[in-house]
Design brief:
Layout: E1 32-46, E2 51-64, E3 71-79, E4 82-90, H1 93-97, E5 101-109, E6 114-122, E7 128-137, H2 140-146, E8 161-170, E9 173-183, E10 186-195, E11 202-213, E12 259-271, E13 274-276, E14 279-286, E15 289-299, E16 302-311, E17 318-329, H3 330-338, E18 343-356, H4 360-365, E19 368-382, H5 385-390, H6 395-398, E20 402-419, E21 422-432, E22 435-444, E23 449-458, E24 474-475, E25 478-483, E26 488-491, H7 493-498, H8 501-509, H9 516-524, H10 546-553
Parallel strand pairs: 11-12
Antiparallel strand pairs: 1-2, 2-3, 3-4, 4-5, 5-6, 6-7, 7-8, 8-9, 9-10, 10-11, 12-13, 12-14, 14-15, 15-16, 16-17, 17-18, 18-19, 19-20, 20-21, 21-22, 22-23, 23-24, 23-25, 25-26
Length: about 550
């Protein structure tokens, strides 16, 4: 260590002036020459944590010509194999000693993190700091690893971070306003206020971003395997979602650790392939009760609102939520959300839900609520029912579905109720030319099973909504049962025979007066095909396989 240059001796002060601290001398005329610390080392041992931190290569220079001249300190040190440079200038050291204010500039420069401050320091009661702060982090993940706190988070985000704004700190209150934020490709503006004077800290914040792309922070999408022992049926072999609900307790105690009032706005949000337009959300957290108010949501040419309340103030947390969607285009959101492209139309939806529990299973088992959904002026894509019935040929269904074909419908709608985890839908209905579909059944949410029956009905009518009460025609009941990851989809043959469906089919599908062939003349310009089967071929039964039809319809 290089010997320090001797400091100039403090000039004695007459009795009664300055601060002597009983020494008979004063620091009012303190002057420092060129003080240096070269190649110093600091070792800190935490015996409780059984850890040791070592700082080496400490080189510091301090200059103070007088208390009325700027105090300057600069130097560098090495910690965890990184060199950190420090610069500090205090313009009025005497004012700080006397409990006043001084301009202050400080900076910390290193490869993992850079921090700068330009403002003022007031050495009063309480201590106060005000000025401009700039933070630059080349990589959040690398910074965390360097600080021995690696981030175990999915995705490839959390790279560059930069923050600039105005700091105003006075005692337990910290305000950071006029902030400019950039993390990865997300840019935003806003501010935050923190008050630690109460029983728990209080936080208020506003943030507005351009595009909030959450994809870099999400784990890669994986295709889950169906539950073991799932029966084969009409469903896809690759179910989605976990095999069962978790019994692992959900820790919501963090909601009681802070109070908050947060406002967030975004011009666009990306989650996987889902694209959300301009949105605004207000979040309040008070004594363990979290309220999230999604007051503005623009989604696929439609709008929506949602209100979610999570109350963790009691031993058993409760959740309540409500949702309204208006004018949302169904096909693009279903494609982006689930790669499902068989449904097109304008969606209207309402939903309410309440539940309580300490784990996923308890929350699902205690769920109660209701809702309704309607698709209007849409289509089921993949086949053209009118063309199929005009030249009725069951082989057409066996060949799969053609995305260029579609069956228009005037309305597809239904309501549901949920009681203790059991969802009941009593009134699914689809109204389309030549086709009516009714459905009803249950979805057991805790057990993840379906018990559902639909009844597609062919009718000799081109009307949509006005034909809702038409009970005539040829129907094929379909039972959908089993685990929802891989349900069994089978025709109800007993119902077919009991209702005389085969005889009805002849009258409805036939080309005579009042049949579908007659109805199709209005849109095809001719009747149904009655050409004889080629010589040597076995006559077709004329009935499609409903299970195969539904499999194709709901396939991707």
């Amino acid at each position: 260590m290089t010997p320090a240059t001797p400091a100039a001796a403090a000039t004695p002060t007459p009795s009664g002036s300055g601060s002597s601290s009983g020494s008979g001398t004063s620091i009012s005329n303190l002057r420092l020459g060129d003080i240096r610390l070269v190649n110093g080392t600091i070792v800190y041992t935490d015996r409780a944590a059984k850890s040791t931190e070592t700082v080496t290569g400490i080189d510091v220079a301090i200059a103070l010509p007088s208390l009325d001249s700027p105090l300057k300190a600069n130097g560098e040190l090495k910690w965890k194999n990184e060199t950190i440079k420090i610069d500090l200038t205090a313009a009025k050291p005497r004012a700080l000693i006397d409990g006043g204010a001084s301009a202050l500039q400080a900076s910390v420069t290193s490869a993992p993190v850079n921090l700068g401050f330009d403002g003022s320091l007031t050495n009063g009661q309480p201590l106060a700091v005000a000025g401009t702060v700039k933070l630059d982090v080349p990589s959040i993940r690398k910074l965390a690893t360097w600080a021995a706190q690696p981030l175990d988070m999915p995705g490839n985000g959390l790279g560059p971070l930069s923050i600039a704004g105005k700091l105003d700190m006075k005692g337990p209150r910290i305000a950071f306003n006029d902030a400019q934020l950039r993390i990865d490709e997300i840019r935003g503006t806003g501010g935050v206020t923190i008050d630690t004077s109460g029983k728990v800290p209080s936080i208020g914040a506003k943030l507005a971003v351009e595009t909030l792309d959450l994809n870099p922070y999400l784990p890669p999408e994986t295709e889950a395997k169906p539950a073991a022992g799932a029966p084969a049926g009409g469903g896809s072999a690759s179910g989605t979602g976990p095999a069962d609900w978790s019994d692992q307790p959900i820790d919501m105690s963090g909601l009681r650790a802070v109070n908050a009032d947060l406002a967030f706005a975004a011009q666009a949000i990306l989650v996987r392939k889902i694209k959300v337009g301009k949105s605004a959300v207000q979040v309040t957290l008070k004594d363990g009760k979290l309220v999230t108010n999604l007051s503005e949501l623009n989604l696929y040419n439609g709008t929506g609102k949602a209100l979610i309340t999570v109350d963790a103030s009691k031993d058993v947390p409760t959740i309540e939520q409500s949702l309204t969607l208006t004018g949302v285009q169904a096909q693009p959101i279903l494609i982006d959300a689930a790669d499902f492209k068989r449904l097109r139309g304008t969606a209207e939806a309402t939903a309410t839900l309440s539940t309580r529990g300490r784990s996923e299973r308890e929350l699902v088992s205690n769920a109660n609520g209701n809702g309704a959904i309607t698709f209007k002026n849409g289509a089921i894509t993949g086949f053209n029912l009118a063309a199929l019935l005009r030249d009725f040929n069951p082989a057409a269904l066996q060949k799969g579905f053609d995305d260029a074909q579609e069956t228009d419908f005037a309305e597809l709608a239904g309501t549901y109720t949920i009681k203790n985890g059991l969802l009941n839908n009593p009134d699914l209905r689809l109204l389309a030319p030549l086709l009516r579909v009714q459905g009803a059944g249950d979805v057991n949410l805790p057990k993840r099973t379906l018990d559902y029956k639909t009844t597609p009905r062919l009718v000799a009518s081109l009307q949509g909504q006005s034909g809702a009460e038409d009970k005539s025609g040829f129907s094929v009941p379909i039972a959908i049962t089993g685990p929802w990851a891989n349900p069994s989809i089978l025709p109800d043959m007993a119902a077919l025979l009991r209702d005389g469906a085969l005889d009805k089919a002849k009258g409805v599908i036939g080309g005579g007066a009042g049949g579908i062939g007659d109805a199709l003349k209005g849109i095809t310009g001719g009747g149904s095909s009655t050409a004889p089967a080629p010589s040597g071929t076995k006559p077709s039964s004329g009935l499609p396989n409903p299970a195969n039809a539904i499999k194709g319809l709901f396939g991707k």
